[in-house]
Amino acid sequence: MHHFSATELHRQFIDGTLSAADIVRHTLARIDAHNGTLGSFLTIFHERALKQAEALDEKKRRGERLGRLAGVPIAFKDNMNIKGEITTCGSKFLTNFKAPFSATVTELLEHEDAILIGKTNLDEFAMGSSTENSALQKTRNPWNLKCSPGGSSGGSASAVAARLCPLALGSDTGGSIRQPASLCGVVGYKPTYGRVSRYGLVAFGSSLDQIGPFATAVEDVALMMEIMGRHCEKDSTSIQKGPDAIVKELNTPIGGMKIGVPWQFLEGLEPQYQQSFQESLKVYQDLGAECVEVDLSMLKYSIAIYYILATAEASTNLSRFDGIRYGVRSPKATTLEEVYDLSRQEGFGDEVKRRIMLGTFVLSSGYQEAYYRKAQKVRTLLLQKYAEAFSKCDLIATPVSPFAAFEIGSIKDPLQMYLADIYTIGANLAGTPAISVPSGFTKDGLPIGLHLTGPQLADSTVCRGAYAFQKVTSFHKQSPKAFS
Amino acid sequence: MVQIHKETVRYLARLCRIACTEEQENALLHDMKEVLSYIDLLNEVPTDGVTPCNNVSMSCMQTPLRADTVKQTLSAKDFFENVPQHTARLVRIPPVRGQGG
């Protein structure tokens, strides 16, 4: 049953083929069997999930309303709150932090009877592209255990790829859902900025962060977006708009759709990735879509813009971790100043410190104009270029990542790691919806992903474009043999 | 290109409230120099007269503020559960001005 998509699993629960208790017992047994190897989960909700499953089976027996995710186990990246459970953010700072309230997405998913199965590993505070920055454990890629699953939502991606659960949530600030989805051969989705409430998500870069789903199939992503994509009054950036009908639009043919390709920006892509990308474009052409060239050469500045704005926002957001109100307070502190200085020194890892320092620098007196304000201005120009591109096409296609999964420990230079996000960061800077869909394999058998992005609020078009590709390809059906 | 030195790192560490060892300062200086040199790429983009992007969201066109009404959002019990050191209803901190204060 672990090869079923969420949609299929839900159907089997509704028609009585499987009980929620059967599904949960099977899911927990697989997680228990493989988590020691993969390190995907930080917390596994054994009791909670079984209790929820039994309650759901009882609800079904009584003929009560069943939600659209009834019977479907889902994992949460461990930077989102589930009331009463620990939210670590992959940091030593928060190993004891018990969430005093639930995130809006938690409530929406519980309302649809999804079964919360556990919390997954991440780069500390979602800062990284390999999950190696987690202070708590290593996570491995199920396609090759020597490799990273990508990051920062690496735990969620590896869990879904190994079929430990059909759905997982991630958060995406510069590619943290799409890049690990690509490296693990699953579907990963970043919604339009403001489409999914961030209430209860621990903030990193507030002008960029979005919560989104991982799944094995695009139809599950569409379903998740119908459930989570709605206005929330607790998040002031939440778009005031009701949910979109995405699922029923999936089958609308894409003939005549225009796919923009920023060829100039893709120069330098390695031949095997170039070939895979061109084969993906051919799939679209065969489906009746037209490929047109668009100019997004401005994207060469995206990483520089991002590492100014994201670090500036992070330095502000992470100032709340002071050892006073929550988190681990340094036992060595004897004065108030030492509480701050030592708790933060001991609690934060190297990458988090690096970003807080850089963010503080670009916001500091004398440098704000040259760095922070400059980056905001170039972001405006980039948005204009996206608007021009979308006047010529419906979706823009690129690879997700310049390379497939890499060996753990092989990228030591922080800047080289930042460059891994070159194809995904643009969608965060422009606030556009974007998806990573499995689109091939390297000669070493590692997954490759295709990236599609559309204008803001075109979430339905992005899902439809990805679904059309999925329907005529079989990459998403392949899973790592060691975990089949 | 802006030059940064160890003193800059020390100053930033104070602003950030992160104590650093000498070894950590050296590593931070090295990494920050590298990233700042990369970021200088932005200087080749002319931006005179360009409005800085403060909010990318389509929701900024609307009124994002909710009604200003008082609601019980977090109980004292739930709040104190996460406070590292506290008395019954007060957060406990060490002396503000040190032991000799």
Helical amount of chain A: 25-40%
Which two chains share the most extensive interface?
A: A-B, 77 and 59 residues
Structural class of chain B: mainly alpha
Mean pLDDT figure of chain B: 88
Query: What is the N-to-C succession of helices and strands of chain A?
Result: HHEHEHEHEHEEHEHEHHHHEHHEEH
In total, how many beta strands of chain B? Answer: 0
What is the percent of helical residues of chain B?
Answer: 25-40%
Shape of chain B: flat
The overall pLDDT average of chain A reads 97
Radius of gyration of chain B: 23 Å
Order of helices and strands of chain B: HHH
Oligomer classification: heterodimer
What does this structure look like?
The complex is a heterodimer of chains A (484) and B (101). Chain A is α/β, with parallel strands linked by helices and 484 residues long. Chain A has helices at residues 6-14, 20-38, 46-61, 104-111, 154-161, 178-184, 218-228, 271-286, 302-317, 336-347, 350-363, 369-390, 414-418, 425-430, 459-471, and strands at residues 41-44, 73-77, 115-120, 167-172, 187-190, 210-215, 258-261, 290-293, 395-399, 434-441, 447-453. Chain A has an eleven-stranded mixed sheet, with helices on both faces. In chain A, helix 5 runs parallel beside helix 6 (178-184), helix 9 crosses helix 11 (350-363) and helix 9 (302-317) crosses helix 12 (369-390). By secondary structure, chain B is mainly α. Chain B has three helices and no strands. Chain B is flat. The interface between A and B is large, with 77 and 59 residues.
In short:
Chain A has 15 helices and eleven strands.
